[in-house]
Design goal:
This protein is of the alpha/beta class and about 210 residues long. The protein has helices at about 20-25, 30-35, 40-45, 70-80, 100-105, 120-135, 150-165, 170-185, 190-210; strands at about 10, 35-40, 50-55, 70, 85-90, 105-110. It contains nine helices and six strands; from the N terminus they run E-H-H-E-H-E-E-H-E-H-E-H-H-H-H.
């Protein structure tokens, strides 16, 4: 993290930060001193506007939306368009992230690796992602996109209500909601785009309610 100008470390239910941790950190011990520790993923992610999960496992079928990933190169180009608190979510060394943790994220990120050995050591994966962002950090987009967590949550909630209002099949609802979240995550909508789409949803509800 220190090598690539990142300083805000959040740990979820970690091991004790003992002397060995500080020995390995060498001159970056300040990052450990200032690390924020939470007992659950939900608690740690509450103040984040945009969550990006990382995984070596990618959906091979376009109908499986949970692990529909964006490759690192594309991510590094687009993520600077977002103006807000962005959380890069890395999983456990042995198991990675649970499905429910991935589902809570707006986007899933994948580092392209050999088909013969997909998964990477956690520290190596973190280094590659941070390096990719570091070399792009001076990129200044023409428009900063500022949709915040509260707005996104309202958008996802409204879409879920719309599915209910049109009697969308219950057994398909969860997967479709995840598909929608991945679409919004990849598109990184601006505030204008967000409010336009929310207006469309609002008028859709009005039309549906009038017919009932």
């Amino acid at each position: 993290m220190a090598n690539f100008d990142f300083s805000k470390l959040i740990l979820v239910n970690p091991c004790n930060l003992d002397d060995e941790c500080y020995t390995r950190a060498i001159h970056a011990s300040k990052i450990l001193d200032e690390a924020k520790i939470f007992q659950s993923f939900e608690e740690a992610s509450k103040k984040m506007d945009y969550l990006v999960a990382t995984s070596s496992i990618e959906s091979q079928n376009d109908k499986r939306h949970l692990r529909n990933a964006v490759v690192l190169e594309d991510f590094s180009e687009k993520i600077f368009e977002i103006d807000g608190k962005i959380g890069l979510v890395f999983g456990r060394e042995d198991y990675g992230l649970f499905n429910e943790e991935i589902a809570a994220c707006d986007m899933i990120l994948r580092i392209p690796t050999s088909e013969s050995y997909l998964s990477m050591n956690l520290s190596h994966a973190v280094s590659i992602v941070l390096y990719s962002l570091f070399i792009k950090k001076d990129f200044t987009p023409k428009e900063r996109r500022t949709v915040e967590k509260l707005e996104k949550d309202k958008l996802y909630e409204s879409f879920s209500k719309l599915l209910g209002a049109i009697d969308y099949p219950a057994h398909k609802k969860e997967k479709t909601e995840i598909m929608f979240k991945r679409m919004i995550g990849r598109s990184m909508p601006s505030k204008w785009e967000y409010h336009t789409f929310m207006g469309v949803l609002s008028k859709s509800f009005d039309r549906i309610n009038k017919k009932k």
